[in-house]
Amino acid sequence: MKFSTLTATALLSMALATSGSAETLVVNSYGGPYEKIIRERIIEPFEVKFGIDVLYDAVGSASQDYAKIKATGARPGFDVVVMTASQSLDGCKEGLLEKLTPETVPNLARLSPAIAAVAGPCGAVHEVQYLSLLYRKDKLPEAPDSWSALLDENLKGKIILPTFQNIMAAYLMEVLSVANGGDLLDNVEPGFAAMAKLAKQSIGFEQSSSVMETYIKDGQVWAMPFWNGRAQLLADSGLPVDYVLPKEGSIPLVATLNIPKDAENRQAALRFVNFFLEKTSQEAWVTGYKVGSARTDIDVPADIRAKQITTEADLKALLLPDLGAVATRLSAWGKRWERDVVAAE
To answer: Signal peptide location in the record (predicted)?
Structure first.
């Protein structure tokens, strides 16, 4: 999915040098299936509508992209980048990202205010995923409907958990905290207690989502927490898996479009962000990548709507932690995770 930074940079420079277009836009995002879908569903229609050439940069994770923005003083060589609400908040606070308003990006006014607020003024929410419970249909004939199903005796030694370096771990702990009488920030004792029990059920911990999924692919693991967008890709691949949003609720992974403060092609970047948030673009993205949207006026097929966050009721049902407050607690939570959760395995 990813190729070397040196190769990518060289190819990008060559493309920029040979481009004959009056206007060019560099978009940084992900490779693999994501790249194919974003090219077909968003980038190509954008190029046709505005006559702007888009150069696609698939190098780097969200955290690596943000590190590049910091290291270059907000001149990273790309004009639009896909990151998450956490980087959006940090980038705004540090003055590295452009503040977006309905005057510069009119479709921001179409987003759900509650979910848009999670990302702050520098992030345009273009996609909403949620922490789902992924399971093997051939091993668990009845779909689980609760996070507590992970504690069933028949799943002992058949689940895997993320390490604390993966934000999924903190979110799962918070969800279990709320499910067991605690809250998202100040009373997380029930969450750590529940995670310690889960650790005893698990075969271990992995940091990378791409590594975690190998365990359920080969059948070593029968159930695990996973972002629903990636879970959907596994289901679409023909693997005997499905996923649910458990009845106790879930925390979303809020994906954002961001513009570095000193992006070279600012006007084209603003047009791209607004275009991605158009109703038709959001419908194309939700049905293509099979994720949720912060726009609740989109029209999508019933089977997509049943699995994704697409309505105001869906959005209101999500647990929305204050990400700024979460960031201040991660260091302490990480130490406690090692002491109380990892040690309990």
So the answer is: 1-22
